[in-house]
Amino acid sequence: MNSITTIISNILAIYRRELQSYFASPLAYGIATIFWLLAGFLLVILVFGPQGLLAQSAFADQAGLQSAPLDLPYEFTQFYLGLLGSLAMFILPALSMGLYTEERKQGTLELLATSPITNWAVALGKLLGVVTFFFTMVLPLLVLEALIVGSSDPPFDLSLLFLGHGGLMLLAAGVLSLGMFISSLTESTVLAAILTFALVLVLFVIEGVASNIPGPTGEAISHLSLLKHYNDFTQGVFDISGLILFLSYTALGLFLTAQSIEAFRFQRN
Amino acid sequence: MIEVEQLSKAYGSTVAISDVSFKVEPGEILGFLGPNGAGKTTTMRILAGYLPATSGTARIANHEVHSNSMAVRQNIGYLPETPPLYPEMTVEAFLYFVARIKGLPIGDRDRQVTSAMERCNLSEKKNVLIRKLSKGFRQRVGIAQAIVHDPPVIILDEPTVGLDPKQIIDVRNLIKSLAGEHTIILSTHILPEVSMTCDRISIINSGRIVATDTPENLTARLAGQLGYAIEVAGNPEQAQAVLKKLNQVESIKALSTEGLAENHHRFQVMAATEQDPGSAIAWAVVNANLGLYELSRNRVSLEDVFINLTTEEPAVETSEPSSSDNDEESPTPATPSDATADTPSTEEETPSDSDE
């Protein structure tokens, strides 16, 4: 259908522009650099540090605990991807904070709102753009991981890594989508970043809160936790409820963004 | 092409525009003229579908701007008050982006983007980042994005702000060249702009349309009428009474006495249509034993019409409608008292503040 090609072409136009602006933005490179430095640092500590996996393994050898060999691939994916997830919690709000606040400051929201393009297409294009940028941020880390995985004996189960990284991208999509909604509410980039970080923090630690609430309520709340479901992925457990949760957060963020921009157009006083 | 009927918009309890109605015929350029804060931008935003009206309807190409927003968006090019630009993009990349979101078919994009850049004199800047452009160039990119998809209706909010005099002339010529094929509505607070580019003018003040007509008719409305500035020494009530008795005089208003000698008073006298009360005024004043210090005839310009229509109580002080940022381009709208500076004064004692 003609209308569907139009919509796809619109989404692509927004997507390309968004991606282009990240790659042209010194701020985005700054964020990426911090991310790479921290991630690389954590990886080295995790493997070679005094409490690292190699040290642990050597200690186990010396103590003669051969009966319980260390499951290195498991330890690696779980700890390393767990760390990446925590790191993402700080990095993602910084990526999503400017999604709409900048449009507002530059007045370009007025261009988008008066062009034959729906709020949905704009929000989806933007989200795809920022998720792609985060994906490219993770790519160089794969080189580091490949070094470790390549030298592992017995050979690494790659499906474990794929699942873990898939979980990371799903987590990122959910957080970025909610962050996009928050950035659509305000004109202040800093405020958007702080609010998004606060929300992500709550969604990360909500499991701990929920464990103090007895009964099905606590159970239900604990399911909202990002950390709980993300940890499932990093442990190599593919849980459909985790997938659904992350996709729901993503869809919720998209829906709320489109609604807030529409509401902004309707009652601006 | 554009039909606006009884449009009103309130922000909370503040009324931005009220009961605004006008029409723009296909191929016409309508100038939307008013002092700053008169409601021009609000009207433009409603027309572009960016803001909803509180009441009333606006239709573009027979589509209601709010309820049928998508259809309207396909028919308009819109330059908002601040040009909507992505600073990190090059001029050409930005125009391609706009061409895409405006739904221009792939085959037409190259031609349209090139043509928009040529029309706005941007070709040599096409690979420059928008961030590095001067204000004048940014404004031109703003105009280019409004015309890149060749829309039937073009809405321009203050298109010449920030341009130097030569660029202003270029933009005016550009706008004129767009007329005919396109229907254009442009807002401005600069008088010469509308009189030079527009077929018709709507003057808006405090959210209300006070007049809609061609520049010629608007001038003619007051041009058939002569005005005299007069300075007398003596009792002001007596002077007014004497002047009122004259048949040829339609109205008298007292002007500021600032800068005048003691007991001197100035009046602006408007003649009845097709009458010239010059000598009668002189006779009447002298016969009443009032000192006549100045009697000068002033012509009516479009500026006077503007002042006349946008000044709430056209008497006492006539300085408030002159907006603060039109200095670069237009002369500050002449107040009736200032107009005496244009005509040779009959007396040596003209107020010193009428020079600037």
Give a quick precis of the structure:
The complex is a heterodimer of chains A (269) and B (356). Chain A is mainly alpha-helical.
Structural overview:
The complex is a heterodimer of chains A (269) and B (356). By secondary structure, chain A is mainly α. Chain A has one domain. Chain A contains 12 helices and no strands. In chain A, α1 crosses α7 (119-150). The radius of gyration of chain A is 21 Å and the shape is globular. Chain A starts with a helix and ends with a helix. By secondary structure, chain B is of the alpha/beta class. Chain B has 2 domains: 2-220, Rossmann fold; 222-354, ACT domain (Alpha-Beta Plaits, 2-Layer Sandwich). Chain B contains 11 helices and 14 strands. A 6-stranded mixed sheet of chain B has the order 6-7-8-3-9-10, with helices on both faces. Chain B has a 4-stranded antiparallel sheet with strand order 2-1-4-5. In chain B, β4 and β5 (63-64) form a beta hairpin. In chain B, α3 (91-101) packs across α4 (106-119). The radius of gyration of chain B is 24 Å and the shape is elongated. Chain A binds chain B through residues 6, 9-10, 12-14, 16-17, 20-21, 24-25, 106-118, 265-269, and chain B through 10-12, 45, 48-52, 70, 73-74, 76, 78, 80-89, 93, 97-98, 100-103, 145.
What descriptors fit this protein?
heterodimer; A: 269 residues; mainly alpha; 12 helices; B: 356 residues; alpha/beta; Rossmann fold; Alpha-Beta Plaits; 2 domains; four-stranded antiparallel β-sheet; 11 helices; 14 strands; 31% helix; disordered C terminus
Number of strands of chain A: 0
- C-alpha Rg of chain A, in Å? 21 Å
Shape field of chain A: globular
The CATH architecture classification of the largest domain in chain B is 3-Layer(aba) Sandwich
Instruction: Report the top-level CATH class of the largest domain in chain B.
Output: Alpha Beta
SSE-based structural type of chain B: alpha/beta
Task: State the helical fraction of chain A.
Answer: over 70%
List the domain count of chain A as a whole number: 1
Number of helical segments with 4 or more residues of chain A: 12
Strand % of chain B is: 25-35%
| Sheet/helix structural class of chain A | mainly alpha
